[in-house]
Amino acid sequence: MEELARLAGITVRTLRFYRERKLIPPPRREGRVAWYDEHHLARLRTITALLERGHTLSGIAELAEAFDHGRDVADLLGVGTPTEEEPVRLTPEDLADHFGAEATPDNLAAAMDLGYLGTDGDELVHISRSLLDVSATLVREGIPLAEVLMAGKRVREHTEALADLFADLVLRHAPEEDLQRLRPLARDAVQAELSLALDRRLRKQA
């Protein structure tokens, strides 16, 4: 315990307090000896970083619980990694830097339920750098993360339908292996239609 506290830059008394609050998992015990490892040290450094970013101990405890019960990234990504989107590894501190006070346990759980976030050891994995950047930018513009995630859920429903429409169109007239080759056409068509739809909406607002 003394060695762990020293490496984490905290006092043994603080470490005991964190243990009592269940902010860190219990040590591995061999007889009367308690062994801590890199996982415990990473969690302690995360707690310190989140406290420095203005999070409360109660909020950190809730974040830790959501983190510990989150979906494993292997389940999230399925058989393989996305073919075009770039997954991003994040520490809890990175998440707080991206979303500030909006990085709440409820929003973390919602992002995991939506399939944006999964866990891998002491790290979070976001399935798409593009979606992460868009979400963080919208939050910086003053839009609550909870509403961004709700919008993301609706977008997911529409894009699933669009993917089915395009796949059905191609597979009616071409072999299955052509679906991967032609997928950029679906992306370009949706991007163009969305751009035109936004033009129409902006003209209505003017």
Task: Give a brief outline of the structure.
The chain has 206 residues and is mainly alpha-helical.
Question: How do the strands and helices of this protein lay out in sequence?
Answer:
Elements: H1 2-8, H2 12-20, E1 28-30, E2 33-35, H3 38-52, H4 57-68, H5 73-77, E3 88-90, H6 92-99, H7 105-114, E4 117-120, E5 123-126, H8 129-140, H9 145-171, H10 178-205
Antiparallel strand pairs: 1-2, 3-5, 4-5
Helix pairs in contact: 1-3, 4-7, 7-9, 9-10
Description:
This protein has 206 residues and is mainly alpha-helical. Among the domains are: 1-52, Orthogonal Bundle (Multidrug-efflux Transporter Regulator, Chain: A, Domain 2), CATH 1.10.1660.10; 151-205. It has helices at 2-8, 12-20, 38-52, 57-68, 73-77, 92-99, 105-114, 129-140, 145-171, 178-205; strands spanning 28-30, 33-35, 88-90, 117-120, 123-126. A 3-stranded antiparallel β-sheet has the order 3-5-4. A two-stranded antiparallel sheet has the order 1-2. A hairpin with a 2-residue loop joins strand 1 (28-30) and strand 2. Helix 4 (57-68) packs parallel to helix 7 (105-114). The longest helix has 28 residues, at 178-205. It is elongated. 21% of the residues are buried.
Radius of gyration: 22 Å
C-alpha end-to-end distance: 65 Å
Pairing-aware structural class of the strands and helices? mainly alpha
Instruction: Give the quaternary arrangement of the chains.
Output: single chain
What is the 3D shape? elongated
Strand order of the largest sheet: 3-5-4
